[in-house]
Amino acid sequence: MGLLKFYPWVMVEVVRAFNNSMQPALEIKGINKSYGSFKALTDIDLKVEQGEFFALLGPNGAGKTTLISILAGLCVADSGGAFVMGNNVVEEYQKSRLNLGVVPQELVYDPFFTVREMLSIQSGYFGCRKNHHWIEELTDKLGLTSKMDENMRTLSGGMKRRVLVAQALVHKPPVIILDEPTAGVDVELRKSLWEFMKHLNSQGHTIVLTTHYLEEAEVLCERVGMLKDGRLAALDTTRNLLKRFSGIRLSLRTNGKVLPYVLQKHLVESDVDDEWVFRLSDYSEVESILAELRLAKHAVFSLDLREADLEDVFFSVIKDK
Amino acid sequence: MTGFYTLLYKELLRFWRVVFQTVAAPILTALLYLLIFSHVLMDRVTVYSEVSYTEFLIPGLAMMSLLQNAFANSSSSIIQSKVTGNIVFLLLAPLSNFQFFLAYLLASVIRGVSVGLGVVLASSVFLVISIFNPLWILGFAFLGAGILACLGLIAGIWAEKFDQVAVFQNFIIMPMTFLSGVFYSIHSLPQFWQEISRINPFFYMIDGFRYGFFGESDVSPMISLVVVSLVFLFLSFVTFNIIKSGYKLRN
User: Fold this and answer.
1) Would you say the ipTM is above 0.90?
2) Cα–Cα distance for residue pair A203/A173, rounded to 1 Å
């Protein structure tokens, strides 16, 4: 009888928990944002499912940070809606922020406090009081343990970046957004940071990252969205994108100045002076290209052959659309 | 409520870390004013028949310091956070707009009242200070500090650089404070300036505050209480709505 009294309440909680588990981690519906006459985002629709490791890529000024800011409640969209774990970022801003951890791009800190105080204050903002074990684990994984009682002013750039990551994670958010977290940090930290992110992702956290290191995105992320001029220019799994833009990339340097006409169709724009870059569909085409070059009396100085990667996909998308 | 308490604690810790600058220095400045003005004017100015000019000065100076420091606390905290960018930590947190407003307000009130109390206590070392009714003193102290805390928040949110906060402080707050009867009774002014003083809310804060010490004032303390309370409520409403709108914070 006692249990029956609580039955409706229990059912509501069960339904709510079920709904939460079914919600996408992030959902963006028809978002538009302008700064004066500059259109920063145009009709963005995007969904990131729970547990995904998602990369948001794009050149500088493409709108990545604006999109992240809208999700984090740091700015408001002109139209459309954004949701974090099913919570509207404007109408249910407290719930949505509770579910989100953001590592901002800028190296910001409060010069009045030590690392320990910063983490304790940030925990308090999110209503976490007894999270000492988690903070210990966090600071240990991020190599901050020896710096806990140092003032933020005295830390190096890399250490400040680690503190930013720790601050974003103090409340164990189900969704974590990292806005260029590896900008200006050394290789060791980059590696340890990605290992930690992979660990968090394996524990069910959804991770969204923006980065200029495309090889990282290729290795880590299952899905990629590419922004260009405020529009979503590509959105697919990393595998599909690589397949779509698949091919073999052949880079050559020769003593010739003019490329034989028959090879022009294979040529893609080169980003290095005096280098010709070809896209081939099969390795067998290499010999025919070399044969044409020999026929045209070109001597090959250097040759590089590799499979297309996310960087090639990125440049194709940015160039084509 | 943990978020609110944390923000309040952080704001208190922020000014406590530099207590010599935020509390001790304004108390010393007020004492220097007291020393110089009372020395120069004590035999020349009589405001209330039973009260010496030095005694008359103390509540005015205490209230002036209280108001200026309540303003300085919220305005400097917000503008520093905006300029250094660390306000992002607060904006990402799930604090309600009201918690945000209340924490900044209370921290500024606490600093303002601490400085005001410090001025009164430090002055009492040199002079016996009479207290007519402490409730009036406390009421006007908290309401006055609340008003200036709101103005500080508005200035800090509106400003984009330190210079703009200084303009707000030096061209609005400072003149209104000095022209509100800190150093004199408005009855000593020509009729025109008396009328001007009556539209200055700072006058009612100081006059009501002083009533708590001497039981004498330029206008009825009830009128002062109503004016100061209405100004506080109006500014609280405006400040809360500015925070809620995200003006210059979430853009």
Assistant:
1) no
2) 12
